[in-house]
Amino acid sequence: MEMLLSTKGITICLFFFVLSLAAAIEIPLSVAQLPTITEQSHTQVAYPFDEDFTIKCEARGNPQPTFNWTKDGKPFDLLSDPRIVTSNNSGTFVIQNRGIITNFQGKYRCYASNVLGTAMSEEIELIVPSVPKFPKEKIEPLDVEHGDSVILHCNPPKGIPPLHIYWMNIDLQHIPQDERVSMSLKGDLYFANVEENDSRSDYCCFAAFPRLRTIVQKMPMTLKVSRFKHANDSGSPNAAVTKANFIKERKPKLLIPPESAGSSSSVTVIKGGVLLLECIAEGLPTPHLSWVKLTGNLPKDEPETENFGKILKIEQVTAADEGTYQCTASNPMGRAKHEFHVHVEEPPRWIKEPEGGVYSVGTNLVLLCEAIGNPEPTIQWKLNGMPIDSRTFRGRISAREISLTNLQLHDSAVYQCEASNKHGTILASANVNVLNIAPLILTSDGENYATVVGYSAFLHCEIFASPAADIRWTKDDSIEPLSTLRYELNKNGTLEIKETKKEDSGSYACWAANSVGKRAITANLDIRDATKLVVTPKNPRVLKSHSILLKCQSEYDSHLKHSFKLSWRKDGDELPVKSTEDGRIILDRDTLFISSVTLEDQGVYTCVASTSLDSVTAESQLIVLDVPDPPEDLQLSENQNRSVRLSWKAGASHNSPVNESIVEFEENRGEPGRWQELSRVPGNDTTTLLSLAPYVNYQFRVVSVNAVGRSQPSKPSLRYATPPAAPDKNPENIRVEASEPNEMVMKWEPLKPTERNGPGLEYKVSWRQRGVEADWNEETVKKHSLTLRNTPTFVPYEIKVQAVNNLGSGPEPNITIGYSGEDVPDAAPSGVSVDVVNSTLVKVFWFGIPRDRVRGHLKGYKVSWWKTKSMLDGKRHHPEKHFLTFVGDRNYGMIPGLEPFSEFRLSVLAYNAKGDGPESSPVVFETPEGVPDQPRFLRILNFDKDSVTLSWGLPKKANGHLTGYILQYQIINETHEIGPLNDVSVTNRSTLSWRLSGLSPSTKYKFYVKACTVKGCGKPVTEEGLTMAQGTYAGIYDGISTQGWFIGLMCAIALLTLLLLTICFVRRNKGGKYSVKEKEDLHPDPEAQSIKDEIFGEYSDSDEKPLKGSLQSINGDIKATESADSLVDYGEGEHGMFNEDGSFIGAYSGSKEKGSVESTGSSTATFPLHA
Predict the structure, then answer these.
(1) Percent of the chain topping pLDDT 70
(2) How far apart are CA 528 and CA 614, in angstroms?
(3) What is the mean pLDDT of residues 987-1004?
């Protein structure tokens, strides 16, 4: 057998383990075994409204058990009554509710038997209640006197508890109860003493049986209460009542327990039940009931009383509640007492129950049975439901133990132990199965198991055997034992492989053997990859109202794809798959998106991934950042005239610590309702000493600041008013402003409301002329300015302003120097001279005016110039002035942008804030020749295959005497590659066309023409054309240039262009500006390149940055990035100024030659002066 099984792939002998399976698993039904009761009924009530009543008794065993019943200890035949319905192979029967069924009431017991023994159920009591009814009787009226005690008896019928009794009238209104009138536990109504208003004829007792769904009513009872009648009835009614009450007054007398019971009685209560002790007394006045425990341990809690103190109630009674209790009924006439001796008893309960099991032949048996109770229970042993006869029983038997040695197959039996006392009976059964069988493996052969790496694998091998079987597990083809702690054999035969690895996959075999035989099964194990998770981002910190996207990245075994599931939890609670809160939180499988994050969203978010084999989680804690909550509970302390301590409680910081607190104040005198910052408290301090100003009615609030932002302000503190004082400071920023020459206006910044220090604030102004021995002039004003008239022009004054209030003056003020009103300068600069730098640039020199002739603060000098005639044609020009402003006290300046080969006149004046002074006498200077502008046009008149005729126009401005033209040409192609440049010099300045020969056919050329003077050549005008093999011209003007319609079109375009230029001219005259770049393009300077370094290099300063529209070039060489220092010699025009960074705005003003493009308007340029 071993050889045969080993060939099936069983290898590693794991280990050898002996199992005791007697009580480990149930005996398989395929094995012969004793009957066992598996289900039974308990106490049952046959309610009249039920259709039938089922009494259950089910049992298992092999062979199948048969069932017998006893009723009240006698055999009960289920076939004796046709209303009993039975079932096959079951002891359960049903009694149909037809006719009279009271004869079915009793105590039943079920017996299940087979050839091996008999099992017995516990007793089943069937209660068949009768319908409760009050007897029909005539109840005589009770006629009593005022003050008597009365008992109205209810005597309810018997029925299934619970029973509820009510006393009501015929209108179903409850009879009021109190200390005088109350109902006893039995349901009787007790009157300690009656009153006249107790008289009525409808005292009804109602008994309710909820389980029977029944309420019954006793016949109404009549109670008549009459006054006491004295034999000599001569007094008033009230006197009679008072006398009656006096006669009826009596000390209390106990009605429950009755006096016949003596001064004490015994009460027995079941442990765990409810103890109810009752005392009801009669007497006049109405007695009061009280309770006390005389012996035994006092209860931990005050005993509960009911029914107006007449019932003492203790629930869940324990042995500690035993003892003597006393009730006392008392009134002013005396008292009555009764003692209750309480005994606590309990029904039987098990200490040790007999335990059956499977035993092999030859073993020994010991059954123990022990129970306690009060009174002590009696123990009775039974064998197969029958009392054991010790004379014939081969084992030993005692009240607590049964033992047998050398068990044999015929010793199989059901042993019952029954413990009884007067409070009940309990039953315990022990099935002793003596078996001798080979192992039975109850687990199916060839089971497939799977787990993931790192988890434990459980391979099942459930075995039943007697004697107990030895179990071992093997793996694959090896039989070598494996000594590893990762393998563990459990009691039920299951193999546990801990912390599995991939190499644990394979085929396993479970072997079971005992002295009777041997069995084996195989099992297959697959090891899958473990599921892995990571949530990103990990523990993010998110600003409130922002959004966050959590992503759950997972890896899992492909075999587990269909069982893979993802879910999300927040703080352990699962989040719904659908979006929540109107789509603010959206779950989409592996992503969790939260928009407009709130503080409530903070928490631990867990991604849960599960497959059929494993479940893993990954967490990310979302931390929500927000501004702090506003501080609370502002308190003021350490009150002083100029300080107070402010303390507060910090609000929640919302995960970003408070790094600063801002204390603000509001005062209700100067600027009520306006909050101003007073101080800042670093860190998370919550107290600060505030420095205060006098005469301010403060209230404070605090704003907390963290890295996210500022909190809402706290609620304001209580107001705190400081006492007034003299001013601590004087006004600042004292200055003099004057609009007229003989006037001086003194101004200053007024004191803030918190700087006034007291009521009645005024300003004492003192002044005197500087350098003149004179007393101070003084004037006190309430406003923050003072105007002096009839002052000399531009004279320095010493000025003081002092703050004064009702409590005194401020500190001694500082002296400020100010000047009286200015007037325009009354002298012109002298010694004006001009140094010509090149054809467009000159340098002007002058001598400044004396300081006393400025009559104010010198602002600078203005240079004006105008063109008088052209040196080329001698034409005179209408004088249109241009000017540049040079800021500051200086004696030279650079004038750029002049027209070459022209005569100019120039003058200089000084100016101050009041205006311009007189101009100097004009100085005449001339500019030399310059390079000409580019020719007006270049046209190709005729293009043959190897020659071309070019025609060009005169330059826009000659800027001197023309000496001729330079004509250049070169081959070009579509790839932008160009050939060498060929030059042709045209020395005749009157020549305006030229024929070039020796060109290549079918070739594209580019042509250049530029005009020249003695100073050099200007910019060229260009044109392109293509020679053709047929000799035709492919240029722009060939073909259509000679057509009449084309000539007309060109004339129309020229006319429109002239009209547009005229409009621009008019608009430019109004605005007076055009850019320096335009100036440069219209006035090329041939000398600019050569003199650039000489003239402007000394002013280089790369720190200045140009702004859009800044100066780009004057003569093609001055760059916008050159600093204001490089432009210091250039003045500021009347309208054009520099930006803050020194970039130039505007160009130059002045008239241009008639008909020139430059005559589109005047412009100005302004340059700053750097000291």
Answers:
(1) 84
(2) 10
(3) 88
C-alpha–C-alpha distance, residues 666 and 644, integer Å: 15
Detail the DSSP E strand segments found in 715-771: 720-721, 732-737, 743-749, 762-769
Contact between 687 and 635 under an 8 Å Cβ cutoff? The reply is no
What are the start-end ranges of the H helices in 1072-1126?
Answer: 1076-1082, 1088-1096
DSSP of 264-314: EEEEEEETTS-EEEE-EEEEESPPEEEEEE-SSPPPSSPPEEETTTTEEEE
791-812: average pLDDT: 92
Q: Whole-angstrom Cα distance, residue 384 to residue 431?
A: 9
Exposure string for 675-687, b = 16+ CB within 10 A, e = fewer: beebeebeeeebe
Residue 1069, SS3?
Answer: helix
Q: Which residue has the tokens 């909050």?
A: 675
Angle at 1115 between CA 1113 and CA 1116, to 5 degrees: 60
> Closest by alpha carbon to 934, among 951, 957, 900, 960?
957
d(CA 408, CA 434): 7
Sequential DSSP letters for 182-198: EE-TTS-EEESS--GGG
Amino acid letter, residue 256: I
CA dihedral 815, 816, 817, 823 (to 10 degrees): -140
Biggest alpha carbon–alpha carbon distance for the chain: 178
The answer to whether 1000 and 971 are in contact (CB under 8 A) is yes
Pairing of strands 615-625, 541-543: parallel
SS3 641: coil
Cα distance between residue 395 and residue 402, in whole Å:
7
What string of H, E and C letters represents the secondary structure of 646-686?
EEEECCCCCCCCCCEEEEEEEECCCCCCCCEEEEEEECCCC
| DSSP output for 41-78 | --SEE--TT-SEEEE-EEEEEESPPEEEEEETTEEE-T
Instruction: Give the residue carrying structure tokens 């005088």.
Output: 180
Q: Would you give the DSSP letter of residue 794?
A: T
**Confidence class for position 195, pLDDT limits 50, 70, 90:** very high
Beta pairing class for 697-705 and 720-721: antiparallel
DSSP string for residues in 313-353 = EESS--GGG-EEEEEEEEETTEEEEEEEEEEEEEEEEEEE-
β-pair partners for 1161: none
Residue 805 has pLDDT above 60, yes or no: yes
Question: What integer pLDDT is reported at residue 1104 of this predicted model?
Answer: 35
500 backbone dihedrals φ, ψ, rounded to 5° = -60, 155
Give the integer Cα–Cα distance in Å for 540 and 548.
8
pTM of the model: 0.51
Gap between the Cα atoms of 1036 and 1052, Å rounded: 19
Q: Which residues make Cβ contacts (< 8 Å) with residue 115, sequence separation at least 6?
A: 63
Phi, psi of 946 (to 5 degrees): -135, 10
Cβ atoms of residues 782 and 763 within 8 Å:
yes
